[in-house]
Amino acid sequence: MSTPRAAAYARLKARFARIAALGEAAAMLHWDASAMMPPGGAAARGEQLAVIAGLSHELLTAPEVAEDLAAAEAQGAWDEANLALMRRAHARATALPTALVEATARANSACEKVWREAKARADFAMVRPHLEEVVGLQRETAQALSAALGLDPYDALMDGYQRGVTAAEVEPIFARYEAFLRDALPRAEAIQAARPAPIPPRGPFPVAAQRALCRRLSERLGLDYAHARLDESLHPFCGGIPSDVRITTFYAEDNFAKALLGVLHETGHALYERGLPEAWARQPAGEAAGMAAHESQSLIMEMQACRSDAFLAFLGPELHAAFGGDPAPYAPDNLARLWRRVERGFIRVDADELTYPAHVILRFRLERALIGGALAVADLPGAWNEGFSRLLGLTPPDDARGCLQDIHWYDGAFGYFPSYTLGAMAAAQLMGAARRDLPGLDASLARGEVRPLTGWLREKVHAEGARLGFQDLLRAATGKPLDPQDFLHHLRARYLAAG
Amino acid sequence: MSTPRAAAYARLKARFARIAALGEAAAMLHWDASAMMPPGGAAARGEQLAVIAGLSHELLTAPEVAEDLAAAEAQGAWDEANLALMRRAHARATALPTALVEATARANSACEKVWREAKARADFAMVRPHLEEVVGLQRETAQALSAALGLDPYDALMDGYQRGVTAAEVEPIFARYEAFLRDALPRAEAIQAARPAPIPPRGPFPVAAQRALCRRLSERLGLDYAHARLDESLHPFCGGIPSDVRITTFYAEDNFAKALLGVLHETGHALYERGLPEAWARQPAGEAAGMAAHESQSLIMEMQACRSDAFLAFLGPELHAAFGGDPAPYAPDNLARLWRRVERGFIRVDADELTYPAHVILRFRLERALIGGALAVADLPGAWNEGFSRLLGLTPPDDARGCLQDIHWYDGAFGYFPSYTLGAMAAAQLMGAARRDLPGLDASLARGEVRPLTGWLREKVHAEGARLGFQDLLRAATGKPLDPQDFLHHLRARYLAAG
């Protein structure tokens, strides 16, 4: 017995499942492009992805979708959330004229190409006209979404990455971090300076041994290679789909830490995808709850669990067994000094846990000003250097180590950067709640058993899909919305406890 | 100045380019499924490919396509051929009701799954009901296509793999081969028996050395790894797209020949794809000219060029340099005896060049009878064994070495098998023409230079795309339509010349 309102919802579910299957295909093609594709395949790959994106957009904006969305009725919390997410996806898609979507794709791709060259030459002027076009189109997009969604323009962009989080919520959290860092950073540096310098492990570290170690440890975290692959690419990432996740890393023979910590990080992302509710596969409610939630899952593995004293006590002997040689560098306290070293630097992706948020805060403020119109692209390098110096007391020697370093803006991603630090804060908050719920957690980590934590995350975060927004997800898992206190507490314990 | 008739053609070109881009995406996902995908990804991959196939079908059968096809006018040989191919693709797609297409996909996939188990157990009864359903749907498909295209039902299926070739043309060619073989096979066996037995090379042959050798030789044939990859899969194949071809092989440490000859074969396929006319990319006229033409390109490389006396003279020392040890097995005449060994066997994919067509002739006749209704699925094993014994004088000891051995029928591919032998014959005919056009061809091969041949094929075959049908392509390249004489001549020279 299907009512017309239930039938409308059923049609929508079938349509969104088709759109999601196209999205899965695109995800695989993106992974292939980064991990497998010969350079000669790039042009055709762009064409394939453009056609898939265009068809997805047509499926989502077809006239009957609006009718079904208006008529549909869903029963129960999951279905109601699913229908609400369908309405949101449809509203975002129909807000944007096809011409704007296509112009954006073209401009982003052209800008990104020039950016690679401009970054290599540290020549901002070279890419400036392209970035102006990209920012102009992002402003237009933000305006169109703003009108359709009733959000502030920048918030409308951020909402695409992290549903329901606004700049008005983020700014005070970031301001508080800025104030914390002003005092904490010199103290952490002083404490570090008073300790013995860490002993670096001596390579070479054969790639085969690194690969085996990375795979073994990711399995220990709970990754099942009947549903996953570990490959190599220039930048580590997690791609693929829930039943077939693809993580990558980059091996250097003289340093195993980058590949290993990268794999632990990407495994966190992969476990989130693997744990999404299968019953809601290819439905909006079955997706991950956004980029901040995703980053919380990679960082809780990499930063909270795997760099903890407890886990390092397990990991040290493992590493020595894998690579041999002098055992001293693999002593847990030496690893802690190595992998928790605070160092002011220009490059976000190389930053330590304590200074990383400063890199994000700078970008958040600048991109908000760019989208809002308060900052012109021409003034970006100056504003960057000024802001960087205020936050970290250093002035970038050139734009390659300044506003040219990240691909994001040059590829049209505005509103994404806050996710990194919101994710770091959420990771600390979730770890605190997990420690309360699982009293033996650190003892398990010291035995190399990460799965109790993974199980807790699966239940509290992964299995919830996108049913709850970021804040509600945290509320349900930890008893409160995002609270930076847990992150500050974690940083104080890790970096400011002299001794 | 675009006339309405020219505008209709332009719209069609844009639509077919979109369909082709979806096909490229599917090709990449198929490659990934065979070469990369963890087992847990299979179900989702099936869903992705089904959605892509469904959308392609919708794009091809949309009402406006029929209008545009009726109105469109194209100028020039290429555009006219392109438009004719569009009409053919549309006629084939619209002939089949969506329900039949979906039922076929489901039945094929279910049957194929059971077949794997049935083959492992040599239990035909287990898969029989599934094969009955598959054959029933293929008959229905053949009837529907027959009515739409004005072809005999079996021909309508074969036309999907090899445009314009009919069973009435194929049967006399195959009958002639059967007659030739009756006499030639015992003679070849006697000649072989009188020669010294070949000395098998002694392994192990490290996989890394095999991989490097395979890559080097495929480059020598003309494959450019800026547009290609060589990977591993259970069965060697050539996948991907023209600007990004993906060949695979399977390495065994105790025998390098299978991997190497597989790579030479797949490289022939890959060179065909690479040489398709770029100006016609993603248009029907820019595709390969069908499966027999494709097989001619793999076999001209593997069988005609690389197993020739000339090339073996080059290859022998190369192999010895790669693997070391006793040089005797790598002597060109020993390689010839090894790699041209005639041996009656049950398995098509292991068959030698002389007996291979018998395997194909058997399947062609049986599948034609299955589709025509003269043979019931229940009677297939008996008919197989009887036919096999008549052709090769052996009776398969079980159905795993009989009618269960190939995936094709169990996956719904009827009308495909003839391509293998039509391709082998076309390869011999093309090689004859190439030898006439390039007087130094064998001398080049003896120096390991295959590119003169590749260049000739690129001009005569690859660059023609699908503009010409199989017979016209051969006519233009060699001066005559398919003529089995050239193949028989080649076999006589290679297997029946005592000495």
TrEMBL record, chains A, B:
The keyword Membrane does not apply. The active site is at E266. It comes from Caldovatus sediminis. The keyword Heme does not apply. It comes from the Bacteria. Its cofactor is Zn(2+). Zn(2+) binds at H265, H269, E295. One of its GO terms (biological process) is proteolysis. Broad specificity carboxypetidase that releases amino acids sequentially from the C-terminus, including neutral, aromatic, polar and basic residues. It catalyses: Release of a C-terminal amino acid with broad specificity, except for -Pro. Pfam families: Peptidase_M32. SUPFAM superfamilies: Metalloproteases ('zincins'), catalytic domain. This is Metal-dependent carboxypeptidase. Keywords: Carboxypeptidase, Hydrolase, Metal-binding, Metalloprotease, Protease, Zinc. Binds 1 zinc ion per subunit.
